[in-house]
Amino acid sequence: MTNLYFHLDRDLNVPLHKQLIIHLKNHILSGDIRKSEKLPSSRSLATDLKVSRIVTLTAYEQLIAEGYLLSKPGSGTFISHNIPDITLGKDKEYLGPKWFKPKTKEIPKAYYARPNVKYDFSVGHPASELLSKVDWKRAWRKAIDKSFTTERPDRSGISFLRGEIANYLERTRNIKCHPDNIVITSGAAETLRLLSKAMIEFNPVTFCEKPGFSIAWRWLSVENNTLNPVNIDEDGLITSELPHKTNRPTMLFCTPSHQFPLGFRLSLKRRNEILEWANHNDALILEDDYDSEFHYDTMALPTLKSQDKTGQVVYFSSFSKSISPTIKIGYLLAPENICTVLKNIIGIEHAEPPMLKQTAMAAFIADGSLDKHIARSRRHYAKLNKIVREKLANLPDGIKVSGLDSGIHAFLSFKEMPNRLLKSLEDKSFYLPHQTDTKPWHGYALGYGHFEQQNLTEALDCLVAEINALYPEL
């Protein structure tokens, strides 16, 4: 039943029942009250409007006579389903003050909503159907059963979740840490935003992989902080491009386990060189370990954090790649003084992730459901990885595939940007938003984690056929 309220002005010369008729007609014709919807009884409406029942009865009878309403004995009064679809003209929508004309930049193509295409190779989308609904619902039931208080939540995240993450990192990434050195965030982007805000007053010079994670470049360059690119080769970040000595606060952002977007793994030699460089310059290393759970035919390389003897590494990750990007829970591991600053920022901004979601995630880890899900996902992605390896094994000279040792995306690189190929693939319902055109790397990432096996095979067959047809000279 629809609840109605109209302002009836007793100071007007228009009788109250006629005012009510006008209000009802306007709402019916504008679609605010839907066809066949039940109206309150004349007695109830009269009580709500503080008028005599004769006012509402008269209005209803008139509208029934005109065909706007239907009376069903024993059931009530309803909007007629025969009302013509007429929408009254509305006032022009207010778009904000005239002076508000922001100079906004266009959102990069990779961050648009995913289009309805046949072959979607966007990056960062795991196979959501692998998540056990039984396990996930059980975790949420446990969270709902928890008693909540009116106190402000812990700025660093609930202790239950921080403790479970500490245990998880020790058994899966050989990282030994105390829960008090963990801060819960809403994901990698939020982690980078918080870190950049914490560092503003120190105006650090920051080194960042090129090509690299665009969101890191976005946040680490705020407030005119100096951002210096460091090139990538097959062994990962080229450490020889880092200055031997810096004379100001210094940071380095990197993705050593699966470089984004090229997919290379940072060699052990360069890992040691980076740690020595950071120690020599009292620099912070920001290690984004975004999809290290998945590796194939090779052992997982150690994290920089697990090798960090001097506390130079700020380690962070999230559950976006292991479960779903909609989870929106991440975490970082940092020295105490940095954690304190981050907690102050979170407290001032009221930026804590929802407590209920944190509790559910903690329960999901605690009962072993996350470990089971990771194992199930690893087996599934290994099958997809094998398909990608086989289908892209015999590409023409000049085209290389990287990133297949780990993660759920690979990178296809060319000697120059393959614009003709990209246009042809787009016409065949391919979606390839993560493109790189930074010398010497030209090409695009292939996110495959969300594909079904048959669909992936079909997509790669089509891709290889287009490459062979359009670039025979390669």
Walk me through what this model shows.
There is one protein chain. The protein has about 475 residues and is an alpha/beta fold. The protein has three domains: about 1-100, Winged helix-like DNA-binding domain superfamily/Winged helix DNA-binding domain (Arc Repressor Mutant, subunit A); about 110-125 and about 370-470, Alpha-Beta Complex (Aspartate Aminotransferase, domain 1); about 130-370, 3-Layer(aba) Sandwich (Aspartate Aminotransferase, domain 2). Helices cover about 35% and strands about 15% of the residues. The chain has 14 helices and 16 strands. An eight-stranded mixed beta sheet has the order 4-11-10-9-8-5-6-7, with helices on both faces. Strand 12 and strand 13 (about 410-415) form a beta hairpin. Helix 6 (about 190-200) packs parallel to helix 7 (about 215-220) and helix 13 crosses helix 14. The chain is elongated and about 90 Å long. The model has no long low-confidence stretch (mean pLDDT about 90).
